[in-house]
Structures are given as C-alpha cells and as structure tokens.
C-alpha cells in the first residue's frame, strides 16, 4: 500500500517533538480519520530556522509531517506558504489515494503555524 520511501520516513521520521522556542504553532485535525498534527516553527528574519512536529495518526500522516518539515526548513515564510500537498506527496514517492488527505492536513498545519506566527508579531 505504501511506497518504500513512505515506510522509510515513517520508520525514522525527522524533526519529531515539541520545539520549545517555537514562535509559530499550527494544530490541525481531521475528525473523519482521527489524524492530529501539530507543527512548531522558529522563525527569525522571515526564515524558518527550525521546525518540528507532533503527529498522532497513520504512517502516511507521520511520513507527511516529517517530509513537510524537511521541505520548509530554511525557507522564507512566503515560500513555505506556497508549499502544496502535491509537493509533500512527491517527496514521499506517492501516497495511496485514500491517504492524500494526510498531505493536505500537513499543508494546513504549516499555514496555521505561519498564521499563528504572524499574530505574535
């Protein structure tokens, strides 16, 4: 069902845990599937210096969260807002159609974390 890449990332995800000095936090969930994602950002001078996540969900949700953090680390806020779920799916080498919502959820979590950051300015 999952690609080797998804299973590899799920088995050894990067950037897991709460980022204590985060200045942007996005928390999203999908009631229909039960996945919950929390993205932590530390932004300095408009650049995402550090990012981490906590995800409760399936392999696709955890792999999507990990892949997304790797994609946006070092990006400007504006470029991170342009990251799409399709980019996350590509980074994973694909997701089953019924798991695409996981990549959508992580896109929403990134946007929520950046919106939270902007309210703190």
Global mean pLDDT: 96
Give the strand content: 15-25%
Strand order of the largest sheet: 1-2-3
Give the proportion of residues in helices. 40-55%
Q: Number of DSSP strands?
A: 3
Separation of the first and last Cα atoms: 43 Å
Q: Write down the overall geometry.
A: globular
What does this protein structure show overall?
This protein is α+β, with helices and mostly antiparallel strands and 121 residues long. Helix content is 45%, strand content 21%. It has helices at 4-11, 59-72, 77-81, 85-91, 100-120; strands at 24-29, 36-44, 47-56. The mean pLDDT is 96.
Describe, in short, the structure shown:
Helix content is 45%, strand content 21%. The chain contains 5 helices and 3 strands. Strands 1-2-3 form a 3-stranded antiparallel β-sheet.
Secondary structure elements and their pairing?
Layout: H1 4-11, E1 24-29, E2 36-44, E3 47-56, H2 59-72, H3 77-81, H4 85-91, H5 100-120
Antiparallel strand pairs: 1-2, 2-3
Helix pairs in contact: 1-2, 2-5, 4-5
Features:
alpha+beta, 45% helix, 21% strand, 3-stranded antiparallel β-sheet, 121 residues, globular
